[in-house]
Amino acid sequence: MSLDIIVFPCLSDNYGFLLHCTETGQTACVDTPDAAEISKQVEARGWGLDYILNTHHHPDHTGGNKALKRKYGAQVIGPKAEQDRIPQLDTALSEGETFTLGNCLAQIWDTPAHTAGHISYYFQDDSAIFVGDTLFALGCGRLFEGTPAQMWAAMARYKALPHETQVYCAHEYTLSNARFAETIETDNSALHDYIKTAKAKRADNLPTVPTTIGAEISANPFMRTDQNGVASAVDMVGAPPSDILGEVRRRKDNF
Ligand SMILES: [Zn+2]
Q: Is 60 among the catalytic positions?
């Protein structure tokens, strides 16, 4: 594989990501939570910054676009459905289109729900997907601009990926998500194991990101609303998974 991926914390609980094609030397960041920290990480490696890949328009994902574009001449790539809300956007992409970093190809997935035009970047050959604020370790994004049905459609699509796929979510919310997940599936042993590992990582100040599709399928309640355990926990056995996701999300919002 020719894609190097660097994960580093930014702001209070965001993650920054650098992507580097080892064959061509091209480099991108995913979202721009903190221009100064991203610059520091780029320069520590002697890299440039060719692209900024935005997942959605929120300021903690696009706030550094202007400064990083000015400093490095980076091209800004972002979701077509949010093109008027992404600062300094150069290229708008949507479902079915692709982006290439050197020799590394990403498929663009429309994954609206957290925001109306949110996109994910799936690097199939490198077994990595950048999901922004749609999917989190043991959680999912808040439904600011979309519906439970849209979020379930995104979850169902992520679930169909190979289990070893590395999932890069944009925040360290895992232990707080874990406290809620435990109230939904009290007897899911995979969830208990997951939480144990996550607690150990956080105790050592290590990120719990990336996670994997397989780990989320086994433990994330928002990916499991088609399972009896989650349905019965919210008294909705037999209801569509999207409706159950809506109820689980509502409970999390009030948790
Ligand atoms: Zn967001």
A: yes
